[in-house]
């Protein structure tokens, strides 16, 4: 909690942000508090969504017996494992920040989270795209669903794409907050 | 004595700025001028790199006779075609802005370019990943390079990834300039 209370100053009124806090922060490097950023409940919801989706994708893909025969499917398992680990870590950090009431909006923390989100989301998206390429190849081009687990391959790929859709807001919000400080 | 003599008025005719917009007039929504952003020579270099890489990827993949038999390769051709078109358009805009000395740093233009870069780079990256999945599947898992153009598939995929690496700075710089205005 800041000791110096924000003083109402009509001359310094900046243009109000579209969403989130309308009150100007009292500190120079304090960033705007947007739902979805680390340390907010929206951010925690995003992390939990990422964790569930990547865990489902991982377990569905790992439950097929023949996924190690295709490189792209092995890569998908590795990528969503990393994504699960990263999202779980950040979810724990978010829960800690929410319980203690501590702010996670320092530029150093934001840049660390931005880099981590950028790397994991890129890996997850690449793995999902590669698996989608193989799945569409098996289903449409080869038409060999009789000997392959097409349903599970499709489900795991879809879940990985959904997971990427859940990681992207975290990355973009972190990057935005890093740029607009 | 002629009354209608043209009067020399030094204040009303400022010489055009020599390179780009080095003498930016003080304006409230003026953004910082970073090399790589639209309207700068660095941005033009990025656009030309994107155009060359996507055009090479397109022509290498289209030169194989059997690319239409795989969905991921057809998708790669479509994605790098769109990327070439987008990069060519933006390169022309950059050349115009550099020649005329016009600034492209309005928030509306930046958001338009950010959205376009985001869409095309995502499509290019997804196509490159899907093609990489199929290429690795053919080369490593099936080991059927005797009947496939493995070299050309690999080259086209590699060029598409390089193209994505050239698009990403444009997207990130545009997004950054949009956030930090």
From TrEMBL, chains A, B:
Source taxon at top rank: Eukaryota
Coiled coil: none
UniProt xrefs under PANTHER family: CASP-LIKE PROTEIN 5A1, CASP-LIKE PROTEIN 5B3
Transmembrane segments: 44-63, 75-100, 112-138, 158-179
Pfam families documented for this protein: CASP_dom (PF04535)
Region (Disordered) residue spans: 1-24
Entry's family note: Belongs to the Casparian strip membrane proteins (CASP) family.
Residue ranges annotated for the Casparian strip membrane protein domain, each copy included: 37-166
Keywords, comma-separated and alphabetical: Cell membrane, Membrane, Transmembrane, Transmembrane helix
Topology with respect to the bilayer: Multi-pass membrane protein
Summary of subunit composition and partner proteins: Homodimer and heterodimers.
Protein name in the entry: CASP-like protein
GO CC terms in record: plasma membrane
Compartments (UniProt record): Cell membrane
Biased composition annotated in UniProt, kind: Low complexity: 1-11
